[in-house]
Write a structure and sequence with these properties.
heterodimer; A: 8 helices; about 45% helix; elongated; B: alpha/beta; Ubiquitin-like (UB roll); 5-stranded mixed sheet; about 15% strand
């Protein structure tokens, strides 16, 4: 039987390239979660965004292999899956750092100095918004409003909301949290 | 659950509540939760247990009471009419104390003072204008009920309106009641809700080819638009977090009125707490027989699904939102046909904003005349605003239509902090405009706001003081629209980029008079030729700042081009 999957390309990463694609679906339990989501929508096309949400939650990002797998299971052309995955800001095709910091650049935060906060973090960690530090520890992202405007300016660190941050203290607050997690591990 | 069972649940729940001498409400909205309010609730509970007062007082996690800038907030309601428990909940009179900036370590002190004087150190007056000037309809339960318990909502009179509609009214009567109330869409454009409902109710599901997925039985749909994308707006989030059942009830009534059996709530993925609480609410309502097949013992069936957005502002536009629910890229399409005739999977579809739907149950319960008595001639009822920016009291407010901006900013908002001067207020987010100080006494309603070049919008209200650079504000919004443009139509895709480039040039001091001219031409072109609301309204922040703060633009040009008085350079 011919396998319709394309070469794994950059998605393969370390060693996985040697394994057969179908092995990965079996050996990696996380595909079960995506499978459950797709089943809930009767493997129909309208479950695509939900499937991508599951995949991103499970893997942290969407690689080519996963996108192809979803396309095949939902009987959608790969172009459609890739098109949807790249249309929405929340989906990312690049692996993320160990921690994620999202700085809100909504209007209220902006007026209260979110840009200075972002600049301070960028300078401290030598990373541009949208990028990941060289040691893969921190991904710095921006958002269009968390709706926590009363706490402006706001950022989140691994999902935890930190409000009323200042440019001076922001980098330090992030460092403290990363340190705490490292010590706990 | 039929009407009798509903009433029985409400009564027993009210009785149980009346037996407790003290009700302690801890806000667990996103803002307060970020400040550890769940720890506070736990600490209060532990303290009650330790003192053996658990039988006498209860700690409840509630939605947002509004005054987010003083959070975390804890409200204590204590009975005033003596110590004895009462069997008549309606005689249960209570007085409230509100505590601000509460920390978990304050729990012991709060509990110790339950029966005596309130803790002065933490108390904030409840008779301040922030609370007294508001009229709460949509937010009446926010901050009062536990959003994760359906019994709480039922005890507050929840699902009574749905029962009334199902058992006493025909679908046409429901539509007529909404039409007579004068309710208009709260998502921004202000389209009359009754008219929309009537159109969907009359629409023929077979008029257009349909392709409804297997497993979905309905041939008409109700969609609740919770894709609150405007930066600086969090009304819908607070509502979905604080009173999710209210939205489900509004949707079910709407579905009954238009003849739909399936609904979707489209929520931003950036609102995880709202998603979680809505999911819980749907499960509870299904179990109670208030959603699903044969609601309340009648023949009416209605199911609700949640769909998550994925970070695309344009999905707030109705046709883009439907494309997203169908699992595709969220790009709008030309109208007509309007969703009311050809919407989700080609079926007639009713799309209403979260706040619009939350207005429905009280209108059904209290009647259209009651609702129409609030507000102005053309704008009825109340509006929820998210008041943020350079203002003392930031948070969520609900005011009757027709209130003046001055009352909102200076009475309810408490004015500008740090002795600064008021400069303007931005309404409607990236689709709205900046309103300068000269219009402070203008009434806030759909028409007045449109007249001064802004829009009601979904309800974000950002106050700016004299340090705010208006050109920068315009540039900020243009950058937003540029990033969020879906790219389908050229005026929006290319126009926003060009406008952003010119605004940046002005900010850098490299622009000339000619650039302002081009900017104005572009505004006009993008506004009138874009496909959807995003592009059509994208120039609004530029147009309004040019109209009222033109001197700031001029200053940035003249300051750097004194040598070229004719305004031409290069």
């Amino acid at each position: 039987m011919t396998n319709p999957l394309p070469p794994l390309g950059r998605a393969a990463g370390n060693g996985a390239a040697t394994a057969k694609p179908d092995d990965r679906l079996v050996s990696d339990k996380r595909y079960k979660i995506i499978e459950a989501t797709m089943r809930r929508y009767g493997y129909q096309g309208h479950g695509l965004i939900e499937a991508l949400h599951s995949a991103q939650e499970a893997f942290g990002y969407l690689d080519d292999f996963t996108l192809m797998h979803i396309a095949r299971t939902l009987h959608l052309p790969p172009s459609k899956v890739f098109g949807v995955a790249t249309f929405y800001n929340l989906f990312t095709l690049k692996p993320q750092g160990a921690h994620t910091c999202v700085v809100c650049l909504g209007t209220a935060c902006y007026i209260k100095g979110a840009r200075e906060v972002l600049a301070a973090i960028e300078a401290e960690y030598d990373v541009k918004a949208g990028g990941t530090t060289r040691d893969n520890q921190l991904s710095l992202l921006t958002a269009r409003c968390f709706g926590s405007c009363a706490l402006a300016p706001v950022l989140t660190f691994d999902g935890e909301t930190i409000g009323k941050v200042t440019p001076e203290a922001a980098a330090q607050q992030i460092a403290q949290r990363m340190m705490a997690i490292r010590q706990a591990a | 659950m039929n009407l009798e069972e509903l009433n029985a649940t409400a009564t027993s729940e009210r009785l149980a509540r009346a037996k407790k001498r003290h009700h302690i409400h801890v806000c667990v909205g996103t803002a307060c939760q970020a400040l550890n309010s769940e720890q506070i609730a736990k600490a209060l509970q532990a303290e009650l247990k330790q003192r053996g007062q658990s039988h006498d007082a209860e700690v409840k996690c509630v939605g947002c009471p509004g005054l987010c800038s003083l959070g975390p907030l804890v409200e204590v309601e204590s009975r005033v009419n003596g110590q004895a428990t009462t069997d008549a909940p309606e005689e249960d009179r209570r007085k409230s104390v509100l505590y601000q900036f509460v920390k978990p370590e304050d729990a012991a002190e709060i509990i110790a003072h339950l029966d005596g004087e309130p803790v002065k150190r933490l108390e904030t007056p409840l008779d301040q204008p922030f609370f007294t000037r508001q009229t709460k309809i949509v937010l009446e339960n926010c901050g009062k009920i536990d959003p994760e318990r359906i019994e709480d909502y039922i005890a507050a009179g929840g699902y009574q309106a749905l029962m009334k509609a199902l058992t006493e009214m025909t679908p046409q009567q429901v539509v007529d009641e909404i039409t007579r109330s004068g309710l208009r869409g709260r998502g921004g454009a202000g389209f009359p809700t009754g008219l929309k409902w009537g159109t969907v109710a009359k629409a023929d599901p077979n008029a257009y080819p349909t392709n409804v997925p297997e497993g979905i039985q309905s041939r008409k749909f109700v969609i609740c638009n919770g894709d609150e994308g405007d930066p600086g707006a969090f009304m819908d989030r607070s509502l979905m977090e604080g009173d999710p059942h209210r939205i489900l009830e509004g949707m079910a009534i709407a579905a009954y009125a238009v003849g739909a059996n399936h609904g979707f709530i489209y929520v931003r993925a950036e609102y995880p707490l709202a998603v979680k609480r809505l999911r819980t609410a749907i499960r509870q309502a299904q179990r109670a027989g208030l959603l699903g097949n044969g609601i309340g013992g009648t023949a009416f069936s209605f199911n609700v699904d949640i769909r998550l957005g994925a970070g695309a502002f344009v999905c707030g536009e109705e046709t883009a939102l439907m494309a997203s629910i169908e699992g595709g890229r969220g790009v709008p399409r030309p109208r007509p046909p309007f969703p009311a005739e050809c919407g989700l999977w080609g079926c007639p579809t009713l799309i209403n904003n979260v706040e619009t739907l939350a207005n429905v149950p009280p209108i059904i319960m209290k009647g259209a005349d009651w609702f129409a008595s609030i507000g102005t001639e053309k704008s009825k009822g109340t509006k929820v605003f998210a008041l943020t920016g350079q203002v003392v009291n930031t948070g969520l407010i609900e005011v009757p239509m027709g209130i003046t901006l001055r009352e909102i900013v200076f009475d309810i908002g408490g004015g500008i902090p740090g002795g600064r001067q008021f400069k303007g207020v931005q309404t409607g987010g990236p689709s709205g405009g900046c309103i300068p100080a000269q219009f402070l006494d203008m009434p806030v309603d759909y028409e007045s706001l449109a007249k001064v070049g802004s829009i009601m919008g979904s309800g974000g209200m950002i106050v700016m003081d004299d340090t705010t650079d208006m050109v920068e504000v315009a540039r900020f919004f243009m950058e937003f629209c540029m990033d969020e443009s879906c790219g389908k139509c050229i005026p929006c895709r290319a126009g926003t980029v060009q406008m952003h480039r010119i605004l940046t040039k002005i900010q850098e001091g490299k622009a000339t008079q000619r650039d302002i001219q081009i900017l104005e031409e572009l505004c006009d072109m993008v506004k009138h030729t874009s496909l959807c609301g995003l592009g059509q309204s994208a120039p609004n922040p530029v147009i309004s700042t040019l109209r009222y703060f033109r001197d700031e633009y001029e200053k940035k040009i003249n300051g750097h081009h004194k040598s070229k008085p004719n305004g031409l350079s290069d």
